Amino acid sequence: MSVLRRSRSGYGRFARLAWQAGPGLTAVTAFTVLLSASAPLGLAGVVGAVVGLAGDVAAEGLTSSAGRSALWWAAVAAGLLMVVWVAGSVRSAAATALGERIDASLQRELMRAVEEPVGVGHLEDPRTSELIAVGRETFRGSWGRPGRLASTVAGLVTGRVVLLGACVLVADFHPLLGIALLAAGSWTAYEEKVASRAEAAHHYGASEVARRLEYLYGLGSSPEAAKEVRIFGLAGFLRDRYSTLWQRSMADVITPLPRRAVAANVVTAAVVVCGLAWIAVRAAKGEVSAGQAAVCAQALMTGLLGVHQSAWTGLQTELALATLRRFDEAIAAVAAFANDAPTADEPVAAEPAGGDRPRGEIRFERVSFSYPGATAPVLVDLDLTVPAGRSLAIVGMNGAGKTTIIKLLCRMYEPMSGRITVEGTDLASVDAPEWRRQVAAVFQDATRFPLTARESIAMGRPDVPVDQAGIESAAERAGVADELEGLPSSWDTPLSSHYPGGADLSGGQWQKLSLARALYAVDHGADVLILDEPAAHLDARAEARLYTRFLELTAGLSTIVISHRFSTVRRADVIVVLDGGRVVERGSHDELVALGGRYAEMFRLQAERFSDRTNDSEGTAEVTA
Ligand SMILES: Nc1ncnc2c1ncn2[C@@H]1O[C@H](COP(=O)(O)OP(=O)(O)OP(=O)(O)O)[C@@H](O)[C@H]1O
Q1: How wide is the angle at C-alpha 96 spanned by C-alphas 92 and 332, nearest 5°?
Q2: Per the count of CB atoms within 10 A, which of 240, 365, 422, 425 is most buried?
């Protein structure tokens, strides 16, 4: 029962999607489905009429009244054949176009849903992010795309209508034969559907094994993993593991023959064969004319074709329905997150006077936070102040919670207790997108947008007209202008080697580009600058340059710097050391070194390491100074 109920709801969802995506195309598809289903049945009757007249035409000639009738029916048959072909082509074209529209509208729906929650928790939560990934990935498989439903359901409905019409024709000769064909055909259709659904469930990662297969395939074929796969000689290992898992997962699908579906097909074929034999015997006895026998025989064969058409399109339909269900699960999972957190469009609870964005001192007041599902908190009653227009550096061991502080400040997550204020205004009461326009950031894992060099910087403020002079100035300050101008098409070069005329950048160049984007955002209104490991990919010269220009780059901005490199950190006005979810030391570089605590120890260790290596690079000279 549940199998059938689920199936119906899938079809209902598809019907609504189709109508919303293209009412005209849906109507054309439905109309041509009816035409291409009824024309073959009409053809069976017409061919029967021609066969019925064959004897008279042979005796009396084509010019006789029987001959003229036969010619007329032949012309009708030709017309019906044309209808079958034309309706089939139009149906196929309309269903394909409709399917493309359905896929595009679903992808927009998923993008909208993913953007909806203020934070990024839904993208980092393993369960939801997996569903989103499935929703996203399934669009790549052409057989399983939900849009394919437009074609497969059209084929399915055509097959069912053909079967029904054939049964009616056959019942005209003998009601029991018509009922037998209907019963056997319906049983076959049902069993094929059950078998198809089991296969579809397997294909779309209903099992954990299928997900792991996908993961192994991705590792073995993606450019990201290619270096490690080659260096460590992992290709054979990955292939072996893939084969073992594949054999195990296919055991469920391939080994057990869908016996019931096979039995149903055999019974349907038997009904048709018995029906043909019966009508042949009756024709031989003269109980039915040759024309009637031809109609009955064709109806039986057409009914069989209808059953096979249903079975063939049934598997594809089930694959696409499985995709649609997974897609809906992803949307529902994201919506659950959106319901738990304030949404981007939610009215601002207490907007600051005059609707201005809050500026000035940023304070974390007794902020505690744990990631969903985590057992230990990352931040515990954290008090932290970022002075207005000045720079604050946060240092601490790996996993101390430095990046988490940034995520909370950018409202990717909300504190579990305590609050974050900007010039006294609770950040939770401020419109999140509006607040984010005030913040510019350089993340250590900055996204490598495959846009042109110009666009990559200009998207620091996508809401303002592109300002070429501003782009060049930001790139120059970030130390990447010469490199970008030297690209094959200068600022118009697509930053991806996958695009024609495109070029890729090195890790350090990407990081400098990210800094340029942040500076461009600052030039256009942002006044909080976040630098999360801004020197992680920089060479010694570039790092030294960042260090010497740090004060110039951050002048007048509330800046938060996270870094394990003291060459970057020590220039900040205030430095805090984070440990156990709290601030344990606070002061300027000199004050903290004089204090002789954690900071002093970390600084000493790093300085020793650098001074042991060399003293001649600009970067190390700065660190050890
Ligand atoms: N999305 C997440 N879900 C669950 N736990 C997370 C998530 N992100 C970070 N954590 C955990 O939170 C803790 C703090 O992580 P965070 O990235 O803030 O540390 P960090 O101080 O920036 O570390 P690093 O210096 O290594 O970059 C770590 O224990 C980490 O495992």
Answers
A1: 135
A2: 422
- Local confidence band at 400 (pLDDT 50, 70, 90 cut-offs): very high
Mean pLDDT in residue range 181-202: 86
H or E segment to which residue 15 belongs: helix 2-21
Q: Which two tokens stand for residue 131?
A: 């569903």
| Coil vs helix vs strand at 420 | strand
**Where do we find the tokens 């043909």?**
276
Q: What are phi and psi of 517, to 5 degrees?
A: -60, -40
Yes or no: say if 446 and 440 are a contact pair by the CB < 8 Å rule: no
The predicted complex's ipTM stands at: 0.98
Q: Which two tokens stand for residue 592?
A: 């903290």
Closest residue to atom 9 of ligand 1, CA basis: 404
Lowest mean pLDDT segment, chosen from 38-47, 167-176, 219-228, 364-373 = 219-228
Q: Which helix (H) or strand (E) holds 396?
A: strand 391-396
Lowest mean pLDDT among 13-17, 44-48, 219-223: 219-223
Spacing, Cα 124 to ligand 1 middle (Å): 12
Q: Ligand 1 within 6 A of 398 CB?
A: yes
* Distance between Cα 133 and ligand 1 center (Å): 22
- Domains recognised in the chain with CATH numbers: 2-340 (1.20.1560.10), 383-438+528-542+553-625 (3.40.50.300), 449-526 (3.40.50.300)
Place of tokens 């002789």: 596
Residues 6+ apart with CB under 8 A from 21: 98, 101, 102, 104, 105
Q: What is the 3-state secondary structure (H, E, C) of 79-147?
A: HHHHHHHHHHHHHHHHHHHHHHHHHHHHHHHHHHHHHCECCCHHHHCHHHHHHHHHHHHCCCCHHHCHH
CA of 583 to the centre of ligand 1 (A): 16
∠ CA 503-505-506, rounded to 5°: 145
Interval 409-448: pLDDT, tens: 988 889 999 999 998 899 988 888 888 888 998 887 778 8
pTM of the model: 0.68
pLDDT at 134: 67
Please tell me if the CB atom of residue 514 comes closer than 6 angstroms to any atom of ligand 1. no
Cβ neighbourhood burial of 331 (10 Å; 0-12, 13-18, 19+): buried
The mean per-residue pLDDT over the stretch 312-340 comes to 81
> Exposed/middle/buried for 24, CB within 10 Å: 0-12, 13-18, 19+?
exposed
Closest CA to 430 of 515, 334, 356, 484: 356
Residue 359 corresponds to which tokens in the numbers above? 């500026």
